Amino acid sequence: MGKGQETRERLMDIAEASVLTKGFGATSIDEIIAAADITKSGFFYHFKDKNQLARALLQRYVDREDALLDDLFDRARELHDDPLHAFLIGLKLFAEMMADLPNGHPGCLVATCCYNERLFDSDVRELNRKSVLSWRQRFLTELENIVEIYPPKDDVDLEALADMVSGTVEGGIVMSKALEQPEVLAKQIMLFRSYAKLLFLPAYN
Fold this sequence. Notes:
The protein has helices at residues 3-22, 29-36, 40-46, 50-79, 83-99, 109-115, 122-147, 158-179, 183-200. It is mostly helical. Helix 4 (50-79) crosses helix 5 (83-99) and helix 7 (122-147) crosses helix 8.
């Protein structure tokens, strides 16, 4: 990584920490510049304004989350060929990873953009919308593979169930922060996992 890219990443690291702590509106370019110890022209060399910075932050966050989920569920599929069991393993791996974060999940930039959408331009809002849709499609594909083998015991909308994964994670992050109990997020993921087992696994007498 060249020096210019290192500076860009440092600016983004500083900005992301501030945005997740106090929001986008309360994060100023001046404080980012001061923390990074660069000139204002140095900042604007990398980002022409705060919305361009927001787009870069959001894209980096989404890319990282996608890579993390790819890795977890790819590992799960290597451990089990059955789509339901692989999905359950992937959720367990995900919960274990969240439980291992010493200070809990730092927060979600996608949720932050939703809470403060009026602060962002249309490009940022559209990127945010597409990221949520991509996560819906990710989990919908998993669920469609599952129902080919395991008919659900209840009449469920698979698209809504796919959204429930993201909803469970986002809600778990909020609850963890509100209660100052990092373990809440992992427990919520495991609770969704239990629901998936009850919904799809056949009952044995």
